[in-house]
Amino acid sequence: MKTKVNEISIKYQGNFKISQAPKITSSVSAAELLFVTWNKDQIGLQECFKIMLLNNANRVKGIFEVSTGGITGTLVDLRILFAVVLKSLAVNLIISHNHPSGTLKPSEADKRLTEKIKKAGELLDIKILDHLILTPDGDYFSFADEGIL
């Protein structure tokens, strides 16, 4: 009997020069970029978790939606998150999610997830620069700015 296996192909496709990509210099620049790319029809309805993939110069390689959930939470599978990070060859990462309620205070679950992602990133030499919580009205909370990253 002949053994068969699937072939795995990895592809990263960009449509512009990285020198033209936005450069993240602060939580403000990251939050502004995330907010303009967020689906405005859903930001106030259900939680969504996204990652901003950055190169070593903190230029944005892309933004990826990891999960969409319910009104008060969304599940994040770290294997999927880091599969995308590794596939894109990102070295820095900004994680983000929205709070449809408009509350800026991170929950204990938000803090635990942040720590879990940070530890996994350390094993892979991928730096988590920030975790941003966005609200429907454009406000944000930065874990890095508040010293809890």
Give a written overview of the molecule:
Helix content is 26%, strand content 23%. It is built from three helices and five strands. Strand 3 (92-98), helix 3 (108-123) and strand 4 (127-134) form a beta-alpha-beta unit. It has helices at residues 27-37, 78-88, 108-123; strands spanning 48-54, 60-68, 92-98, 127-134, 140-142. The longest helix has 16 residues, at 108-123. It has a five-stranded mixed sheet with strand order 2-1-3-4-5, sandwiched between helices. By secondary structure, the protein is of the alpha+beta class.
What does the secondary structure layout of this molecule look like, with pairings?
Layout: H1 27-37, E1 48-54, E2 60-68, H2 78-88, E3 92-98, H3 108-123, E4 127-134, E5 140-142
Parallel strand pairs: 3-4
Antiparallel strand pairs: 1-2, 1-3, 4-5
Strand proportion, as a percent range, falls in: 15-25%
Structure classification: alpha+beta
Overall number of strands:
5
One letter per element, helices H and strands E, the order comes to: HEEHEHEE
